[in-house]
Amino acid sequence: MNSTIYKKKGPLVFFLIPALLFMAVFLFYPFIMNIANSFQRITQLGSSAQGMNDPWYANYQKLFNDPIMGTALKNTMLLMLATIVFEVGFALILGLLVDNIKVGTQFFRTVYFFPIVISATALGLLFNLIFLYNGGMLNQMLVKFLGLSDYIDWKDSNHFLFTMLAPIMWQYVGFYFVIIVTGLNNISGEIYEAAAIDGAQGLKRTRYITLPLLRNVLSTCLILAITGALKVFDLPWIMFSTGIPLDESWLTGTYMYAQAFVFKDVDYSSTIAVVIVVLGVVISQIANRVFKEVDY
Amino acid sequence: MKKTLALALVVLMMFGVLAGCQPSTPAPSSPSPDAPPVQSDEPAPPPVDTNEPVELVVVTTYGGDDGNRQNYEAAYQAYEVATGNKVLDASDTSNEVFKAKVLTDFETGSEPDVLFYFSGVDSNPFVEAGKVVSIDEIRAEYPEYASNMKDSMLANSPADGKKYSVPVNGYWEGMFTNVKVLEAAGVAIPGADYTWDQFLADCQKIKDAGFTPVGVSLQEVPHYWFEFTIFNHGNVDNHLDMPENGTDAVAQKWAEGLADIKELYDLGYLPVNTLTATDGDTVQLVGDGEAAFLIDGSWKIGWFEQNCADHLEDFIVTYVPSKGGDRKASDVVSGLSSGYFITRKAWDDPAKRDAAVKFVMAMTTDDVVSAFGATSVTALKNGTTPPADASSLTLSALEMLKGTTGAVAAVQDNIPPEIRGVMFNDLKNVITGSKTAATLIDETLAAMNNQ
Questions:
Q1: Nearest to A47 among B125, B284, B290 (CB)
Q2: Is the model's pLDDT at A296 over the cut of 70?
């Protein structure tokens, strides 16, 4: 018996080919076609292009003059900001609290992680019922316990942002919580003992020991949260399809989908997809540089 | 040994990856998508009677939870027993994804043998490509084809004016009314002479009594109100006219119709959350006795029968109020918007031609059409026979249909679906006053001209 297979690189490359082929066929080729489609006229899903747009960059012109695209970009950036503050922020607070208790750590881990395993579609329907105007759980509770005289339309212009963001935050807090708790567990107990001898307790211990040692974990969480925010689609689509109210709740993902599958403007949808990819690459590069991991 | 194993694994993995690329339908026997359409006057090969069972690929909209799914299955299974042929049913729920799939199948030469599909502008791509056979061409060989239908009611293709599809049951649109709400508000049940002014007065009484007068989701389904309020400013003869610009006489008619919806919105007669609620939410309001009126189509009868079975007698179908113009309240919107198409692929296949023709004939007999919807508008020469156990709502709808004085198709069907979707999505901006009706009409027409 010998281990020639590991010494020669040829077979390893051969093993990589199927995955590369898969990526080429199902990712790179569609993406290149998507760029080409953004310059053509395609008026039906499933139909071929009817030639180039006139001018060929017409969709990009339209993009800059489209107020709804501006709304979608603004909302996506807001979602990104909310993700950083509330998802990672809450996850950090919950992680620090759970790290300081002796019993029940596993229980809280399971409870907080649970929303992640429920499909976003099911969650969307669930929150639709919670925020429902007539007979929704929240409105019924407000009327019964707070004595409100009228129901609140949780999806109107005054409330839609909260109604859209709260379920997304709620769903993903557990994901970052688990990562942060794992990071906290990796901090050596000896460091805390040494700090205690030096008189660092409570908030001081968190400020000067825990958070600096958690920096790399938090960086990973923030990069994941920022890039993840660009891809959020399913939950807002279930709850706020067609940009209700009055085209105010569009995200780049939902707007792209609606252009392709609802309004059948396939080429314009491709243009929005190009913007999403460019935005994703640029923002993830910035996030990678800003939250660069450091060696201690 | 390890080398051989590694090689075997790689080959296995590559087969695994490519396995999903296998076509799910048989290879097309029709020309490639790029080939020019086959001329209908070319001599077609005669059908072959081999007595061999034939497999027919059939796509319809009677899939999923369609109310007629069971009727459809019973009808095609009866055909299978009678002929020995096999139906490969690939029906699905009718939605935009379904429509896209049908068009893609035609583009790639994977179309079915028989298709039940929309006969309006949705069918233009495959009609223009010559991929379906006209009824005249079929009748040249099968004179009895669709002979139980009134020819005048068979849809003309918007693409070339020819008739291609054999309809089953069409639709009508009317006003579903919760009579319990009317009673509670002290409002009389509307009849065939219902006017807009009476309607507004009734809405105020209903609102004062603590109910929502009209159940409608303007953000999701403004279609019915769009249709009737425009119809109210015209008549049966000119309802299908399309505006040529944002200011001509037809556009004025449309603008006045949209202004009527805005009036209802401004007066608070629509649900508070009409701009954020779903159609399901607002229909439920009527079902639950919280709203009085709902304009909807014949397909909504099934919803009431299923969801309000224990108080079905609370609901009737009546006429949408008329306003000013020549339209009487008893003039309704109705039509036959779908039908069975036989594809050129099946027609040119000697083994399948006869089976496809017989299949469509079996699915459009008087009995089958009656089973699909007693209250439906049909093209049957003999009309439908209502079932003995028809519900009170079905009987109410039949009564309403009996009293109609005129019928016209929906003008919105003249607008290609992709442009229609954008227009309806923008309608809320006209209702809330952030866009004028003239601008919306101009934008819609510009989009149609750019097609």
A1: B125
A2: no
